[in-house]
Amino acid sequence: MEVLLALVVIVFSLLYLWLRHDVGHWRRLGIPHNKPAIIVGNMQEWPDKKHISQIFMEWYKQFKGSGPFAGFHFYFSKAILVLDVELVKNILVKDFNNFANRGVYHNERDDPLTGNLFFLEGEKWRQLRHKMTPTFTSGKMRHMFSTVVKVGEELAQVMNEKIAHDGNILEITDLLGRYTADVIGSCAFGLECNSLRDPTAEFCVMGKRFFTDPRHSDIVDAFIHNFPNAARKLRMRVINQDVHNFYMRIVKETIAQREQNNIKRNDFMDMLIELKNTESLKDDNGVEIGGLTVEEVAAQAFVFFIAGFETSSTTMGFALYELAQHQDIQANLRNEIKEVFDKHKNEFTYQCMKDMEYLHQVICETLRMHPVLPHVTRRSTTNYQTSNPKFCIEADRLIIIPSIAIHYDPEYYPEPEIFNPGRFTADEILKRPACTWLPFGEGPRNCIGLRFGKMQAAIGLALLLKYFKFSVAEETKIPYELVNDNFLLNAKNGIKLKIEKI
Of 68, 82, 274, 328, which residue has the fewest beta carbons closer than 10 angstroms? Predict the structure, then answer.
């Protein structure tokens, strides 16, 4: 017993010494940083007191000008917080090959839905990106446009019914989430989900469960993401089993139904099935690569839903939140929508949407002020020397690019707290350095579905603003509170607005 007790004391003493040494990493290198705590690092105030975006913004303001990056301890991981937009451009674009990975846990062998374009790394990601790129061209968006408009018209009708039934003070984010669930359910899975009419529809509920019902506790999740190689060897999974079973089942059923009955819908699932049935493709170097497996089809459809469901609906909610506070901007936007519809004889076509330039500016400014994913992550593959000899990015280092802090930097956006869509005219965009607007990332690993995301948000907003006026109510929380334990930006308890039919 004494020997066992002595061994325990020795093990814990060595662990403590290792942790003490680990938290002194940035001090020894002379890199600007704040003193970390053992185990939690610099995350002491998350999520009890602050959202992670608030922590990154504070660090950005504190350390900007002291070097190209600051040192940061993300629990057990030593990370860097990028402070210089020139370094941002190098990481995301110019020297992309040194930073091609996102650093997100994936285990496609045991957790097939993680084998998707957002999670994968290295050559697997490159080949998959090459296969998927043709499915997101503007031509493909045109094919899906009418399907999205149909759901958008249903959104406007349901909004009208809710006003008549529940009064004109409504919480809008839930309804907008059901709109995007129906859009993606139709375009990515070929399903008539009916989430707009039925809040308990399984497709929408399962989508939400991905965010609200993690497979593991916070401690186990921290282990998986800090020690991904060990987690893969232990065959650990991250996606809730019910969510996994649901999406695998509906994808397999959809594929079987379409192939057996020769059904063509010109949607995302059609493109994935076509890739599945393609024996070989050639990458940019002429190397032959195979098509998609059924599991890979399911993984891409799954991430298409996860990436588009929350982000687009939240962006629409924040856009209406800002327009409700800026009636002049809302009136100008509605006038544009009306004029464009009149020009196109009240037919909502793809070109009609493209002609709504001010709507595009409103969406861009919304994404500047309220980027749903407020930071971009990468992981270095090799040692990388910055322009300052003192600041070297070590191999396998987590890199945090605080998008929201850059979006609120007055050097790039004067009076950043003011909602001003005029920042996104063609001339104004040219005045700013590259990589100062990052809601979709930038470079070869930017969001492949950004065209679709913008399209479904633009269609929904155009149809809502055509028929309704949105105003601030007594119940509207200004400023809104953030849901701290979510990495995405979400308004706590949703967004309540006054809605009047025009």
Answer: 328
Report how far residue 478's alpha carbon sits from residue 144's, in angstroms, rounded to the nearest whole number: 36
pLDDT in tens, 189-234: 888 888 999 888 888 788 778 877 888 887 788 788 888 999 999 9
Backbone angles phi, psi at 393, to 5 degrees: -90, 115
Distance (Å, whole) CA 240 – CA 212: 10
Provide the token pair at 252: 């397999």
Residue 50, number of CB atoms within 10 A of its CB: 17
Token pair listed for 131: 């296969």
pLDDT at 361: 98
Within 10 Å of residue 213's Cβ, how many Cβ atoms? 12
CA distance 118 to 307: 9
Of 128, 132, 90, the residue nearest 378 (C-alpha): 90
Quick check: 291 and 278 in contact, CB under 8 A?
A: yes
- Picking from 188, 351, 172, the residue whose alpha carbon sits closest to that of residue 273 is 188
Examine the pLDDT at 455 and tell me if it is beyond 80: yes
SS3 state of residue 195: coil
Residue pLDDT, tens place only, 125-179 = 999 998 888 888 888 899 899 999 999 999 999 999 999 999 999 999 999 999 9
Q: 356 near 340, Cβ under 8 Å?
A: yes
Instruction: Determine contact, residues 332/192, Cβ cutoff 8 Å.
Output: no
Nearest to 205 by CA among 188, 181, 175: 181
Q: Which amino acid is at 45?
A: E
Length of the chain: 502
Rounded to an integer, what distance in angstroms lies between the CA atom of residue 370 and that of residue 314? 9
Contact indicator for 283, 291 with CB cutoff of 8 Å: no
Residue labelled with tokens 């009609």: 352
Distance CA 370, CA 490 (A): 9
DSSP string, 49-98: T--HHHHHHHHHHHHTTS-SEEEEEETTEEEEEE--HHHHHIIIIITGGG
Structure tokens at 229: 């190689």
Is residue 252 within 8 A of residue 294, CB to CB? The reply is yes
Residues near 462 by Cβ (< 8 Å), separated by ≥ 6?
Answer: 152, 337, 348, 353, 356, 359
> How many C-beta atoms lie closer than 10 Å to residue 196's C-beta?
20
- Identity of the residue numbered 69: F
